[in-house]
Amino acid sequence: MYHVNIVVAKNPAEVGKLAADQFEAVLRVKPACVIGLATGSTPLPLYRELIEREKAGRIDFRRVRSANLDEYKGLAPDHPQSYRRFMQENLFDHISIKPENTIVPDGLAQDVDAMCAAYEKQIEDWGGVDVQLLGIGHDGHIGFNEPCDSFPRMTHEVELTDMTREANKRFFDSIDEVPTAAFTMGIGTVMAARKIVMVVTGADKAGILRQSFFGPVTPQVPASVLQFHPDVTLICDEAAFPG
């Protein structure tokens, strides 16, 4: 097992700045890098920071390629709660990245297996992910890889747990509108990234971080597999610190 690099920030805004430092370092060394991205409220300070840094001339996204972790099944790209729309509104529309260089799983895919295989191939054709951004769910899920009996290797469809749907209910008018399934990069896809940066804020995540990084490696706590990755940086605020 490897040692995770834990960086503790004062608050969520500082988490965003420290995570941006990690991405900026990769972009400077490799301007045509491939970045893996995540949605949710926790990465928003990071995305705001990246936008500001490009405006200031510190980084340049013109040659960058990006692949998102996941997307809800059944949501069109322009749906208010789709992850494609989230990325457009919170990052892509404000930086110089080319639209054709941003991929998000197709929530409306008819042939799921073909879509998932094509997603994996595109990442492979790009040379793999250089730096992958992750958050973590209260049950330890990363992407939409929920607790289960094994670590799924590739991009696939997953049925969402009641806990995950309940956690995401706040973005919808009611629980009935929350999709019951999603498409997500597999654990193998995530682990193939050369570098992983996880951002976590809030005292309610401290317990699952302890389980994930200091407990046994088990698919019942999907994030625990990160203990086997050689380059993981966890950036958390003081409230989420698992020490």
**N-to-C span:** 18 Å
Major sheet details: 7 strands, parallel
Number of domains: 1
* Unreliable runs: none
Number of helices: 7
What is CATH's topology name? Answer: Rossmann fold
CATH level-1 class:
Alpha Beta
Helix content: 25-40%
Q: Which structural class do the helices and strands define?
A: alpha/beta
Number of DSSP-assigned strands: 10
Provide mean pLDDT, rounded.
95
**Any idea what the radius of gyration is?**
17 Å
Explain what you see.
The protein is of the alpha/beta class and 243 residues long. The chain has one domain (10-194): Rossmann fold (3-Layer(aba) Sandwich), CATH 3.40.50.1360. The chain is 30% helix and 17% strand. The protein has helices at residues 12-29, 44-55, 83-90, 112-125, 162-168, 187-191, 206-214; strands at residues 5-9, 34-37, 65-68, 70-72, 102-103, 131-134, 156-159, 181-184, 195-200, 232-237. The strands form two sheets. It has a seven-stranded parallel sheet with strand order 1-10-9-6-2-3-5, with helices on one face. A three-stranded antiparallel sheet has the order 4-8-7, covered by helices on one side. α7 (206-214) links the parallel β9 and β10 (232-237). The longest helix has 18 residues, at 12-29. 44% of the residues are buried.
